């Protein structure tokens, strides 16, 4: 019995006018897309990332936010090009398949499946962690209790229900929540600034870069900064439901990322200069918060602000989790279209226009993730690495499409010829900077995708061999990342010291990008 047929590798007419996918409805405009992107970035990240970044890098964490934002802008432009010309439900799963074949498509589908489930678990964990202020017994000794896990599961069930009835209702709720979610961090900044700066905190903590400037790079992925920015990709995954993706996606994504860079950099600064100096006797590493901004407000005798923050600590992650539920269901739907999941999940409910089966699948997977990873920081490092792998594969995909399409027929963003490889290099460096601790947890999850691929094509040896050859660059890429982290300066053995490990990784990334594009182009010609 031969393997099931795959979608066409390249559809040269798709860039001109891709029709709506069967069952999905084009109901999202520019401001809905902007609210989805920005709302996805104001979740648990604003409640925790400034604290964990400061704990990792001290005041040098101020550099981490603009650096991560610039990196995400490059990646965002790549995804906008793809979303505008090839609007797909769960496009980040399906573009690598179309460009580089089923091995890469299966691997990315698997990575996205895991990252969606873990991101939902992270948001639910954050809500339960802050809610422990009002409901004792949800969070204890640095992790969720059984009661906390039950509360997180109940919340995920409610969010799945809100997405059950269609994208229009979801968009209206998201837009309303985003206004409130943006307001609370702004009020927090204004009030803490008015309370006065403790300029001694910088010196008390060991100076501007107490753990070296390289710690600012480690904070980007390990402290949840990349995880925080990941929300920008949600409207890309919903591009098949955008009314005019070519016009609205670029504006929505760029606007949202710029706003997020400004907001989070200021939040980081305010956190650094409002932590009392006498709390830093053990340095920034010695800080210990369960709910950072809420506890800081209480320490400064601002009970009303703490109440507002604790209330928003439920609403902000809830809004972000709702966005992840919506975009994640499209990604899982796309994974089913790629063959990572049974075809049972590759369907859209006709009345609501929602892939309901994948909503349920993600709910179950997120619940499973809550058990072994019972705290926010435990989860976000793995999410960041898996997401960056997806962005890297999409950078290769857009370059492959440029090399094989009739470009005269394709809407092209200026500079994409250098933006795509730069996005690949930046994604690769960010993965490397995440450190050996996170990569040794995330990379070993990927071989399961190769097994899924091999099982699917086990009865068609010729095609199995051909597709392994086409996707070999991605396997080599995973090996590169794993070895570089093991011998590098970011938690590895240190045999290759900084900055030479990063230089070597960047140079190797350019070669891998070129290898991937050539493999995709060669496959398209066969």
Largest sheet: 2 strands, antiparallel
User: How many distinct beta strands?
Assistant: 2
Mean pLDDT equals 82
Q: Give the overall silhouette.
A: globular
Please state the CA-atom Rg, rounded to the nearest Å: 22 Å
Order of helices and strands: HHHHHEEHHHHHHHHHHHHHHHH
Can you count the helices? 21
Task: Put the structure in a nutshell.
The chain is an all-alpha fold and 526 residues long.
Structure description:
This protein has 526 residues and is mainly alpha-helical. Helix content is 69%, strand content 1%. β1 (139-140) and β2 form a beta hairpin. The longest helix is centred in the middle third of the chain and has 35 residues, at 303-337. The two termini are 23 Å apart.
Helix and strand topology:
Elements: H1 30-41, H2 44-57, H3 64-85, H4 91-100, H5 102-131, E1 139-140, E2 143-144, H6 146-163, H7 167-195, H8 200-204, H9 214-222, H10 225-229, H11 234-237, H12 245-274, H13 292-299, H14 303-337, H15 356-370, H16 376-404, H17 416-434, H18 436-442, H19 447-456, H20 461-487, H21 500-525
Antiparallel strand pairs: 1-2
Helix pairs in contact: 1-7, 1-12, 1-14, 2-9, 2-12, 3-9, 3-12, 3-16, 3-17, 4-5, 4-14, 4-16, 5-6, 5-14, 5-15, 5-16, 5-19, 6-14, 6-15, 7-12, 7-14, 9-17, 13-14, 14-15, 16-17, 16-18, 16-21, 17-18, 17-21, 20-21
What are the key terms here?
526 residues; mainly alpha; two-stranded antiparallel ribbon; 21 helices; 69% helix; globular; disordered N terminus
């Amino acid at each position: 019995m031969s393997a099931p047929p795959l979608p066409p590798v390249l559809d040269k007419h798709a860039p001109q006018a891709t029709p709506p996918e069967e069952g999905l409805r084009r109901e999202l405009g520019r401001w809905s897309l902007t609210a989805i992107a920005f709302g996805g970035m104001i979740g648990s990240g604003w409640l925790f990332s400034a604290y964990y970044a400061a704990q990792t890098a001290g005041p040098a964490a101020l550099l981490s936010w603009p650096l991560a934002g610039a990196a995400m802008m490059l990646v965002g432009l790549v995804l906008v090009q793809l979303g505008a010309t090839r609007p797909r439900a769960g496009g980040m799963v399906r573009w690598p398949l179309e460009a580089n074949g089923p091995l890469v498509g299966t691997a990315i589908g698997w990575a996205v499946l895991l990252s969606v489930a873990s991101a939902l678990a992270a948001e639910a964990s954050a809500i339960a962690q802050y809610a422990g202020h009002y409901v004792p017994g949800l969070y204890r000794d640095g992790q969720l209790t059984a009661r906390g896990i039950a509360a997180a599961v109940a919340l995920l069930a409610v969010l799945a229900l809100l997405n059950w009835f269609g994208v229009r209702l979801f968009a209206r709720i998201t837009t309303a929540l985003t206004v409130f979610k943006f307001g609370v961090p702004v009020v927090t900044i204004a009030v803490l600034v008015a309370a006065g700066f403790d300029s001694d905190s910088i010196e008390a903590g060991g100076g501007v870069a107490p753990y070296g400037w390289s710690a600012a790079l480690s904070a980007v992925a390990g402290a949840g900064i990349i995880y925080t920015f990941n929300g920008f990709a949600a409207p890309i995954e919903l591009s098949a439901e955008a009314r005019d993706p070519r016009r609205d996606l670029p504006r929505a994504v760029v606007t949202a990322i710029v706003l997020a860079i400004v907001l989070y950099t200021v939040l980081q600064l305010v956190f650094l200069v409002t932590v009392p100096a006498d709390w830093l006797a053990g340095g920034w590493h010695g800080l210990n918060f369960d709910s950072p901004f809420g506890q800081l407000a209480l320490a400064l005798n601002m009970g009303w602000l703490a109440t507002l923050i604790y209330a928003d600590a439920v609403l902000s992650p809830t809004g972000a989790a709702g966005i992840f539920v919506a975009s994640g269901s499209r990604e899982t739907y796309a994974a089913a279209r790629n063959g990572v999941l049974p075809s049972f999940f590759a369907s859209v409910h006709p009345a609501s226009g929602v892939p309901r089966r994948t909503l349920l699948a993600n709910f179950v997977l997120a619940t499973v993730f809550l058990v072994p990873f019972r705290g926010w920081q435990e989860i976000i490092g793995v999410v960041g690495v898996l997401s960056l792998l997806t962005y890297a594969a999409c950078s290769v995909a857009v370059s492959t499409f440029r090399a094989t399409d009739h470009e005269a027929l394709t809407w092209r963003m200026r500079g994409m010829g250098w933006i795509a490889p730069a996005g690949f290099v930046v994604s690769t460096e960010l993965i490397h900077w995440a450190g050996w601790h996170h990569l040794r947890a995330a990379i070993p999850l990927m071989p399961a995708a190769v097994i899924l691929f091999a099982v699917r094509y086990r009865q068609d040896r010729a095609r199995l061999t051909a597709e392994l050859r086409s996707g070999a660059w991605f396997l080599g890429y995973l090996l590169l990342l794993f070895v570089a982290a093991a011998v590098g300066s970011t938690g590895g053995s240190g045999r290759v010291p900084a900055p030479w490990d990063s230089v070597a990784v960047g140079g190797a990334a350019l070669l891998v990008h070129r290898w991937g594009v050539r493999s995709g182009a060669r496959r398209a010609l066969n």
